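#struct-pred
JK: can someone run the complex with adenosine-5'-diphosphate? inputs below
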Amino acid sequence: MKIAILSRNPKLYSTRRLAEAARERGHEARVIDVLRCYMNITSHAPSIHYKGEQLSGFDAVIPRIGASVTFYGTAVLRQFEMMNVYPLNESVALTRSRDKLRSLQLLSRRGIGLPITGFAHTPDDIEDLIKMVGGAPLVIKLLEGTQGIGVVLAETRQAAESVIEAFLGLRVNILVQEYIKEAKGADIRCFIIGDKVVASMRRQAKPGEFRSNLHRGGSADLIRITPEERSTAVRAAEIMGLNVAGVDILRSNHGPVVMEVNSSPGLEGIETATNKDIAGQMIAFIEKDAVAGKTRTRGKG
Ligand code: ADP
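RT: done, structure tokens with the ligand placed:
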């Protein structure tokens, strides 16, 4: 097969591993920088041009689109879909997963366990908003944050009020969320391919920190997940419409709660922690699943 990997940087661990795994399995792999793609949206003849060349002949595309280029990146991915190229994760699912609020709404509608979460736009009823999510301590998150940046733990009601007021005053969108204290600074990353958790790891925040992101100095180790955690993670990815996903779960007193579903989960942490060939498994999934023009939504919506 001829596989396109949409990534801005061929040197990134995940990009490198995917290209390597594809070639090892006898495929042609090409890393394409989405921002260098330009498109022709002519009726019935969609095309993508790249550095002066018209792209053609691809059987599958693997999107590894960074959060900061979601808008343009998903448009390029949609164009591949319109050209009947099979996407490992499709553009609609990717767009959903990049909107934290929309993701939580979709998951809650299907009964997935979630931390109690509030969302507000105007700093009028902050007191009631805080009460609604169970009072302090609570977590306040910038809707556009990634890698733990813009995630704040407010220990007291006063701190929560000030932080919420400040954020709303800056006119940024925020989530206000129940703090899952009993998780003790640890979360579980479940790596999903198809309808299976193929690997999982526990990430523990460094001492004095509640955010377990590896980018924030957290450390990873192996963990055995429960059947409930496994089915929660698989269902969450399925609801989002993602074939490949990193589902982040907290162990709460009321069972597993999903914090986030990541559509471009990093490979370095999980391959290192588990010693598994996740990139190879992703390519194997494409071999099994790829059919020209196969998406659930065909780029609609
Ligand atoms: P990002 O998408 O920026 O990584 P997250 O929502 O995943 O933001 O939060 C970053 C980290 O903060 C999580 O990995 C988790 O360890 C911690 N965290 C986030 N929300 C909560 C919560 N409601 N209760 C406890 N810890 C949380």
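RT: quick notes.
The two ends are 29 Å apart (CA to CA).
The domain at 117-179 is CATH 3.30.1490.20 (Dna Ligase; domain 1).
JK: thanks, will look after standup
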